[in-house]
Amino acid sequence: MKKITFLFCIVFFGLFSCKTSSPPSLHELFEEPIPLKASIIDIPSLRLGNPFSLDLLDTLLIINDWYPDKNLQMEYFTLLDVKNKAVIRRFGKEGKGPNEILQPLSAQLNKNTGLFTTFLAGNQSIVSVSMDSLMLAGNFIGDKINMLNHGLFTRGIRVDGKDVVYVGIGLFDNAKYRILDASGKNIVADLGKIYNQSNEDYNNAILGMVFQGRLKPHPHEEKFVYCSTANDLIEIVDLKKGIIAARFESYYPKFRVENGQAAFEKDNDNGYCDVAVTKKYIYCLFSGRSVDEYGGQALKANNIFVFDWELNPVTSYLLDCDVQAIAVSEDDSYLYSSSIIDDEFELIKFEMIKRL
């Protein structure tokens, strides 16, 4: 793949007057949310741990939930058929041996390639496995892209376009996003900037610790969305054009640095817990809660804000329970998640009502 020179262009999301000192908050930007009620998907053999991420391909749902098997060995993923309410298999055993993995932080399904992809924080790599292999209960064998030689990554995704590339965020020297080629051996480009709005002269690695987040690629185009876990910052990055196409942020995170590590203040309002995408829309699960006020529930949320791929606000939803991760059907009809109901993690879905 040829080395690509990128032109950086930030287009600020302008739905507010130039006289306004800061953009409106998400709650101010959207109309009153549409309330949604969860329905339980009853699968008797399903046992869930604490789901971190999930993704949907037709009727197949993969949940990254870190749950031990009967021998108390950690298995990271559950593969389900939500239409037939059946557990297909558990997979992804914890370990350093062949076909074993450490700390997967994502679940990414691609209908065009038929691949399941996950970023492994413990292995500093991205692994892609064919869904056919997973359906046949084969070993967790796939293409493994080693990222160790290119900095410390905190998240990574695969973007399929004219060329396959791998996109990550992490603790880099000068950029926000690092793009690797299909082999993972070469850096194609470094993109973007982490904006320091504090009064301290923090280096990029410290800011990278603060602005960790969730990444999701567009299902068909060479672009992806980033949502910050630290505040309400959201960015759309178009790889084909080589620009950051849109950006929104209404407040800056509250944090301090101790012994070279960034730590959030307890009164910082957390950002996005998760993000799901379809061809048309971006579904953002937003917390806006502080640890000081909500404790551990600050890491969960019940507000869904929906944007299009130009970051225009579309609609918002208010779930009747707190969730940590979401997936959305291809036709934008259903949202899937899990929540604690009667002291048990249950798989749930919401029918998304359209605003008239």
Short description:
This protein is mostly beta strands and about 350 residues long. The protein contains four helices and 28 strands.
Category from helices, strands and their pairing: mainly beta
Largest sheet: 5 strands, mixed
Helicity, as a percent range: under 10%
Number of strands: 28
Tally the helices.
4
Mean pLDDT: 88
What fraction of residues sit in β-strands? Answer: over 45%
The CATH superfamily title of the domain at 10-24 and 44-269: TolB, C-terminal domain
The CATH topology of the domain at 10-24 and 44-269 turns out to be: Neuraminidase
Which strands sit side by side, in order, in the main sheet?
1-19-18-17-16
* CATH architectural group of the domain at 10-24 and 44-269: 6 Propeller
Q: Tell me the span between the first and last alpha carbons.
A: 47 Å
The geometry reads as globular
Compile the SSE list and pairings:
Layout: E1 10-12, H1 26-29, E2 34-36, E3 39-40, E4 53-57, E5 60-68, E6 74-81, E7 86-93, E8 108-110, E9 115-120, E10 125-130, H2 131-135, E11 143-146, E12 152-160, E13 164-171, E14 177-180, E15 187-191, H3 204-210, E16 213-217, E17 223-228, E18 234-238, E19 243-248, E20 255-258, E21 261-264, E22 272-277, E23 281-286, H4 291-294, E24 301-308, E25 313-323, E26 327-328, E27 334-341, E28 344-351
Parallel strand pairs: 1-19, 2-25
Antiparallel strand pairs: 3-28, 4-5, 5-6, 6-7, 8-9, 9-10, 10-11, 12-13, 13-14, 14-15, 16-17, 17-18, 18-19, 20-21, 22-23, 23-24, 24-25, 26-27, 27-28
